[in-house]
Amino acid sequence: MLRWLTNYRREWLAGDLSAGVIVALMLLPQGMAYAIVAGLPPVTGLYASILPPIVYALFGSSMVQSVGPMAITSLMTGTALAALTAPGSALSVVLAGQMALIAGATLFLSGVFRLGFLAGFLSRPVMSGFTTGAALVITGGQIEPLLGGPLVAIHPPSAIIGLSSLLALWLAKQFLVRGLRALGLSARLADMLTKLAPVLVLVIATAVAALGLAQARVRVVGDIPSGMPTMALTLSAEHWRPLLVPALLIAFMIFLSSQSAAQSLAQKRGERIISNRELLGLGAANLASALSGAFPVTGSISRSAVNYAAGANTPVAGVISACLIVLVLWVPTTWVSLLPLPALAATIILAVLGMIDFTTLRDAWRYDRSDAGALLATIAGVLLLGVEEGVVLGVVLSLATLIWRTSRPHIAVIGKIPGSEHFRNVERHHVETLPEVLMLRIDADLFFGNVDAVTDHLENLLKARAAEGLATHHVVLVMSAVSLIDTTGLYALTEINRSLEAQRVKLHLTEVKGPVMDRLQRSELLSRQLSGQVFLSTAQAFRSLGEGASQEN
Amino acid sequence: MLRWLTNYRREWLAGDLSAGVIVALMLLPQGMAYAIVAGLPPVTGLYASILPPIVYALFGSSMVQSVGPMAITSLMTGTALAALTAPGSALSVVLAGQMALIAGATLFLSGVFRLGFLAGFLSRPVMSGFTTGAALVITGGQIEPLLGGPLVAIHPPSAIIGLSSLLALWLAKQFLVRGLRALGLSARLADMLTKLAPVLVLVIATAVAALGLAQARVRVVGDIPSGMPTMALTLSAEHWRPLLVPALLIAFMIFLSSQSAAQSLAQKRGERIISNRELLGLGAANLASALSGAFPVTGSISRSAVNYAAGANTPVAGVISACLIVLVLWVPTTWVSLLPLPALAATIILAVLGMIDFTTLRDAWRYDRSDAGALLATIAGVLLLGVEEGVVLGVVLSLATLIWRTSRPHIAVIGKIPGSEHFRNVERHHVETLPEVLMLRIDADLFFGNVDAVTDHLENLLKARAAEGLATHHVVLVMSAVSLIDTTGLYALTEINRSLEAQRVKLHLTEVKGPVMDRLQRSELLSRQLSGQVFLSTAQAFRSLGEGASQEN
């Protein structure tokens, strides 16, 4: 921790400085815009950009992560607050801080208890579906501010500013990189300058609005209190309960969003992201956000990528950004107050449209239809049920596809390849079998999700043998592919053993892996109940049961 | 379907008849008691015992399942209704029917779409924890009716009836079986008669209350409308939304409770339970319950076991029970109206105390601490957060233990056993390795829950080799234990390939299973990106890369 600070090299400073400046210029409009998405006063977005990145630097493990306001978490904050209070009210600011507090504490404690594995609750296609759905919801919510009113009653001056800002931003995105490269700039520099187009567009829009359209009643950002946020935490005792579930869901999405941003950049830099350190960093950043009158924050994929591309070497870049935001708040902020909301809506729309991702859908559609189905259902869930419901649905769908895939494990009836010690599937190879012995290889872990299928399959096999007139006196389960038997799996084995015993069939186990065996030895199944034996190898079981059979004959 | 009816044999009738009578005698007090637990008029519990078992008989797959009111689903119904209306109100009856409608439709459609695998969302320890927690909640809720008032202000006549009923029931449970057997009855008969103790106790308590304590104001069941329920469905349009989530959770628990009851009995009878047929049967039964002015129903473990023990052969037993309940409703029901509530509370308490299960906790504690932890956390969740929250928590904990266990798969660095074609873990065997080749066997499926760990592990291995001064030019992934690569896994492999290529390391795959290969061939990873080769066997990879190395040298 903080090794980057004690080992700081002077030559890193140039990169950190340029990245810090560029990210600060991105953060200014983004911070205010995402505060609006969260239904909060614009200045809170700037507050969310000061302490959180500094505190993240102390605990997090990514060198180039830009922590601050982010589209999805702001949308989730806004949705949760809308159910409890009016947007922009004093209470909404209190509740936003309280959400950041709960989310931050949850993340921090998850880091302490090393719960980073929980990121594995969401598959990548489902995450992509959630992001796309959230981007569509945010875009839908910005159409009214963009046009200055609902579609049936747009406000022409606002619509002109909004739509021309949107057009300018779109043109910049499409052509500016190419234009700048034609002027001889490097690809990286051209790309970075393009990211600053929103600031430029907003400055022009503000100038136009301030000069020409002052009487046209275009809505503007309004007064921004000058100076630093007050370091204080106001809480609303009656709102702990209604905020709990939304805050937990936000904590989950904070971790997942940040994790995917951090990981892709760390891979490029040859560094490692330690999930549990990330949890600490994000938790501390959100606690800091709660203290500074702001709202839930996370690592932003788009800003972090710019930070990396602009040459950031260490979290010093983030600290520099934060200092610049502080400077902006200390100089008179009148110019910010004149920023027209339609132009800000245009920057939001163009930013989140970039989050819409059809590549993953195409890949999943080709590769695995159930993943593609989960992705589409998550988009539909976010749009039709809501954002929080979308997160829950996404988790359910990720796990449902997992449970579904693992619910019917492959089980092979095996026999011995003549003249060898190898055992193979009887359906694919010419193998020897013993007359009254059924040998099965279970190609999966035995856990609560598939024990019914395994029990069923075994019963069917026994019935099929009986129907063919084959007696069965021994069932041998080959456990070479089983690395886990949970308690439900143990119960299933116990019941299989009991039911076979009632039919006078002995159950044997072979090739049980070390850790699985250690555990089984603590159960009554092995110590008392098992009707047959535990063999070390399948070959040994085959030999022993074969000899037994020939003696009986 | 209905094969049991077309093939019905006369000799089955005796068993079905005796089981039908005994189960009806159990259903009478249970039906009213569980209606009270659900916060509904007692008669609705009798309505829930008529049509649902008959309709289940048409669709379900179990021969001996007793479908009707059950403790856990009644508790869940009561909890959901309590948030919306006063217990026993006219609206509560409407909403209970609406819950049964939503739950029934969900179950039926889940059956049509073959979603029976969803039972695999809850592990057995967690289910045990949920049942224990629910039993404690129900017991807690019955203490006030048992004593005729809160603990600080008990109503002595009520408490006398309640506590003496409880004592009588407890004594019957402890000693009646033994007593009856001493009188020469068979174990089965003694056991069955013991199950009728509640009816006997209630009859005595009713007589005592009616004769001696009429002036003592002991609360009684009250007027039971005579005759059949009206077949009609009143709905409340504004309550669809608040009922949705509770009804979905109840549907899930209906399926799980019924499934475990049906499965253990089917195993004893050598029959099979088809999950998707069970879903249809339970769905239809709940739709029928909605139509008959009742509430969500499911298969009861305790009644089904009695039904089986009393000799039930087919669902005809359930139909006979239903007819007997109809008879009871057609004769004058004055005697039922005098049934004292404290005695009914005693039967509830004794019934649900039997659901408290510490055996599973003990087994899980010995065998797998994480399962035991999930069980305890689920009990705590039901008690502290609530019943619905307990179900959700249980699902989350089941899946969390699964994700946690699979999140760090075993990955072995392997080498060739000299003079053979076998490859084994370098740490456990003396094996040959190639100087610039890292061979890994992944002992798990590659899915969203473990891809980060796999990527991390590989990076660490490469760093460790670099630290020892070993160059790596080839990484070979041995996929013999991988039966599944989901879309997230495919992305991880693609990123591993890209990151290795950036370090000038080639990625090769060997022993990819057929179905996994079919899928990979549809991806760009195999068709275009893979830097290395796909070998059929590890031995072939070893030979080919070994030759390549010696040529290079």
TrEMBL record, chains A, B:
The chain crosses the membrane at residues 12-28, 34-59, 71-95, 101-122, 159-176, 196-220, 240-258, 279-298, 310-331, 338-356, 376-404. The keyword Transmembrane helix applies. SUPFAM superfamilies: SpoIIaa-like. GO terms for biological process: transmembrane transport. It is a multi-pass membrane protein. It is found in: Membrane. GO terms for cellular component: membrane. This is Sulfate transporter. Keywords: Membrane, Transmembrane, Transmembrane helix. Gene3D superfamilies: STAS domain. Its main location: membrane. Residues 427-545 form the STAS domain.
